[in-house]
């Protein structure tokens, strides 16, 4: 039986019984410790049973943590006011379910971090990974080396850092919500701020001595936190003893050590946990791992990648074994105007919620490197994602009201997509679908057919190319595709149009499109045969683009929707989707894609009562 719309993540087992409990502050709540929740198997720590009758609520749990999880579920039920009588048996399939903020590049205030941690912890997110150091700045105060956080040693958000007292305060804040804080001091790479301050590379004898002093100080600040993350990614290890000596030193301070993989080459016993990143991350035999492979929301769109996050098995395991869970990473190489933009443009909340439910439930239908961004037109995968979408959108309105949450309903959208026509590098070249829409086309002696896709975001080729499967099994450069749908409106009305053809990665030095163009590829859109032009782009490019060039309104998540008129009856929507080379001098990672949704005028919700049809009615 479907769980109530308020429950996210969905419980492992839910059974509705007869009746309704009208909850109020005097409703009896009985809590009992038990030796075991039978169905939970080895996952007893967070397991609980929650029973709602017409007269009372009963909780059974093995541990204090299990009781806390039960109360989180109860708090969500209480949002309904009238709670259906039910029996819930629930447990976590993976023990680590978290998110990471890169504050080394872009400082994020304590108030904002607390808000994010508090909101997400309500959905059983139990890890906050705090990436504190980067080339741009070292953000953790040192009282031994105060010059490390001096303004002259920072290149972004100059003078902004966290005091030791603030760090201790955040540890306590997390502990109160049963969230494990993982501080990261990245070494020996991503360390230009360290080098600017001291004049030494971390791997030199002088640099290593300073770093050990800083680690001893940081371990005291984070006393009681189980892990210290030491980075080790994206760097050439010049001193073969550097990493092992740092691991040993941190362990001597009473903390376990975590590191990126790929990073240093560890064997069992040489590290306490690894965090797998990129497609090359792998499990080291005998070492617990966290799966973050390809889970960088700074590269993601608003729609298709959330489908992939929700559907993916965690580390190709249905439940925890060698892989302990997942962390969703937000890397903000590119500067954004403010904290709200960091949360919104990276779709933080929808992405973390999708991964958090999957990590709680376990299972999944595929892995991220299969065609995971593609939502089928019907069947179990669509039904499960639609159920998740409904619950997430309920919480968007109830729990995340006023927060950046750039996701609207997409499961009702249906598109026809053509085979791609070779354009020979001429991105303006016109093909038959611009003149007539049919089930198949003849062009230069060849037949081009059509297929169908579901959702508001469709990758024809993903940002990571063929590593992540997309609509086309083998996308080729210098081709032009077309996507079209028919949208029925009960009346003539204005609607918002959320549209983009190149979701700009917040880790790239991408140039905005020329004024009057949607992107650098020549993508176009017509609604009822009238072309819709893009907004005025706000990013300045007269001095070139670098990581400090403020990303403006290039991403649909960062701007109000364009206003369009829908006629009464059926409206034709046609997208032209050319692509040249997959890497250019202005965009390193070309995304062959589109995101398209009709929304309310403020862009907060999908437009009500619209019907999408992939085929002409």
Question: Mind sketching the topology for me?
Answer:
Elements: E1 13-22, E2 29-33, E3 48-52, E4 57-61, H1 64-78, E5 82-90, E6 96-102, H2 110-121, E7 127-131, H3 164-176, E8 180-187, H4 192-198, H5 205-221, E9 227-231, H6 242-252, E10 256-261, E11 273-276, E12 289-291, H7 304-311, E13 323-330, H8 339-345, H9 348-361, H10 380-398, E14 414-418, E15 421-422, E16 440-443, E17 446-454, E18 457-461, E19 479-489, E20 493-500, E21 524-527, E22 530-531, E23 562-566, E24 569-579, E25 592-599, E26 611-613
Parallel strand pairs: 2-4, 6-7, 6-13, 7-8, 8-9, 9-10, 10-11, 11-12, 12-13
Antiparallel strand pairs: 1-5, 3-4, 3-5, 14-17, 14-19, 15-19, 16-17, 18-25, 19-24, 19-26, 20-23, 20-25, 21-22, 21-24
Number of helices: 10
Question: For the CA atoms, what is the radius of gyration?
Answer: 25 Å
Oligomer: single chain
Largest sheet: 9 strands, antiparallel
Fraction of residues in helix: 10-25%
Strand content: 25-35%
> How far is the N terminus from the C terminus?
35 Å
Can you offer a commentary on this structure?
It is a single chain. Helix 7 (304-311) runs parallel beside helix 9 (348-361). The strands form 4 sheets. Strands 14, 15, 16, 17, 19, 21, 22, 24 and 26 form a 9-stranded antiparallel sheet that branches. The protein has helices at 64-78, 110-121, 164-176, 192-198, 205-221, 242-252, 304-311, 339-345, 348-361, 380-398, and strands at 13-22, 29-33, 48-52, 57-61, 82-90, 96-102, 127-131, 180-187, 227-231, 256-261, 273-276, 289-291, 323-330, 414-418, 421-422, 440-443, 446-454, 457-461, 479-489, 493-500, 524-527, 530-531, 562-566, 569-579, 592-599, 611-613. The radius of gyration is 25 Å and the shape is globular. 20% of the residues lie in helices and 25% in strands. The protein contains 10 helices and 26 strands. By secondary structure, it is of the alpha/beta class. The longest helix has 19 residues, at 380-398.
